[in-house]
Specification:
This protein is mainly alpha-helical. The chain is about 70% helix and about 0% strand.
């Protein structure tokens, strides 16, 4: 049960994230993702086998297949850089919306009686499930907003910087994957998980919300 409470929110969050990318690109005029069946909330069309297996095995990391975007196909009214910015921002934004929705449901549960939910045990499982959705989506949104390629934050920065600085940004971006690996392996190198304090604080705040 504990594994499902972790695994299902991960799958849900990754699916919504990639769907948001695909849907936004499609609405901006690029039908590449639509033709590939990616404008869908079916997890099977988005999930990467390895990225799905790791959370199932208990690893605190997972990923989905990136959504292909062809900015040349955006509508003429939308510049390629701005279209890419919107498409990139849609993923983290969708996770924040999902976190907000789960938090609202968590508050509603906190005001419910166990009898209204059928049993104390079901109430406990629902509470932990919603807390996990909030935490995973905030973590996923925050991580993807880091301005390091290939994360969404790098595409947002690329869309915001003036054209004359983009060659400089491209040179910096070449080192992005190495920086990203460094961030991922930093806890093992320093023997301390830098995310533990904010996650523990967030878990505490969510527990308070659920108790009210």
């Amino acid at each position: 049960m504990e594994q499902l409470i972790w695994f299902i929110p991960v799958i849900l969050s990754l699916t919504v994230h990639e769907w948001a990318h695909a849907w936004t690109a499609w609405k901006l005029g690029d039908d590449t993702s639509k033709m590939l069946g990616r404008v869908s909330l079916d997890p099977l069309v988005h999930l990467d086998p390895l990225g799905t297996l790791l959370p199932l095995l208990g690893f605190p990391i997972g990923w989905a297949k990136p959504v292909p975007v062809n900015p040349v196909r955006f509508r003429k009214q939308v510049s390629m850089s701005f279209g890419m910015l919107l498409t990139a921002a849609a993923g983290p934004f969708s996770n924040l919306l999902l976190a907000g929705l789960a938090y609202g449901m968590l508050l509603a549960l906190g005001n419910s009686t166990p009898a209204a939910i059928a049993s104390e045990q079901i109430l406990s499982v629902l509470t932990r499930f919603l807390m996990m959705i909030v935490m995973i989506n905030i973590l996923l949104a925050g991580f993807n907003l880091i301005p390091i390629p290939p994360l969404d934050g790098s595409r947002i920065v690329e869309g915001l910087i003036p054209p004359r600085f983009r060659p400089l940004w491209a040179n910096v971006a070449r080192w992005g994957p190495f920086l990203l690996l460094g961030i991922l392996f930093l806890p093992a190198l320093i023997g301390y998980n830098v995310l533990s304090m904010p996650l523990e604080w967030l878990a505490g705040e969510l527990s308070k919300a659920a108790a009210h």
